[in-house]
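CATEGORY: protein folding

GOAL: derive structure tokens
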Amino acid sequence: ELTISLLQLLSENCDLLSTRLKRAVTYNRYEKVASFLLELTSVDDVEKGIVNHTLPYTHEEFSTYVGLSRVTTTKVLNEFQKGFVDLDYRKIKVLNREGLANIIG
């Protein structure tokens, strides 16, 4: 039973690392931002302040996490305001998860 749990945990970690590597290497800027938004808002994480599909990040912080410049991140997020996200001071709220998933393909 412990072995199965450990194998499941290792499998989940491999999947997460694979997704992050794919995002870093093969995704364009829109796919990177969409993928990261979907990953972080998939479940609430009260300790990180992620609640109700809302991230408590500035554009600067978000850009650091996603690996893009702040200017590029801001341009993409502003474009995503057309139905995918709502932006406020230190808040990025995902409104349309399905739409973001369609950007990734």
